[in-house]
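Deliverable D4.2, example record:
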Amino acid sequence: MRILAIITFTAFSVSTLLLSGCNDEPDGSTPPAGRTAVLKINGSTTVNPVASEAAEALRAEKGMAIQIDTQGGSTGGISALGDGLVQIGMSSRHVSDKDRAKYPSMDFHQAHVGEDAVAMVVSKDVWEGGVKSLTKEQVQGIYEGSVGNWKALGGPDQRVVFFSREPGRGEWEVFGKWVYGDPKKVPAVNHPELGGNEEARSKVGSTRGAVTFLSSVWADGVKVYALGIIQADGVIVTPTPENIASHKYPMSRPLFLLTNGQPTGEAKEFIDFVLSPRGQELVRKHGYLGLADLNIK
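Output generated by the structure prediction step:
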């Protein structure tokens, strides 16, 4: 079975990708000599397109049996690794102190494979109605409900429809840190919650007056549009590669492949591939910054 690694199609949340049994190849045969188990990977929908295409290459070239899933996003990947269900977790946020406290025997190793950004995105009618950028205070007002119509922000006379994201998503962590300084300080507000990036883009793109936050590479300028951030000095910063690399854009974030301790065996083989020149080209292919773009060696 081939993996569809096309970013505009996916949420990639398929539990049987490249797998028909825990110790079998996808066609039910025994793995090649020296390959006694399936490499299991779970987590971030942001990292997933890169991991999926890397898995396709390694299966074709080296006969690796690999299962990839995206249940629960970044937090789901961290939990699956901590519970011993996978060998690699995909995460678009740092492993937190809370994660480490939950799994005290786990030696989380974070392999930094690229860089991304989270953007506030709006539906086409909001964008074309004149809203192209927001301040942090305006975003806070939208989230808390004190701003209920886009007209108050220079946009169309249209009710604001805010879609939140599941708390386990890496985007949620970045949003909470930027707007409130700490995700734990975000007040509880009853908003509809969305899961992965594909679901979020689709819902915002099909809803008038909609706004949410998601990986900036999913803002396609057709269904949803990425807003600039108005800084305290009035300068508008957008999630360009230069601003992400320099961290001038405030919602930049790292992309990780996580293991229990230093990676070994097939997990190391997989991560080494993603860190290789070929793997880093996959990172860039899907719109993220590679380590060389960050001057990280």
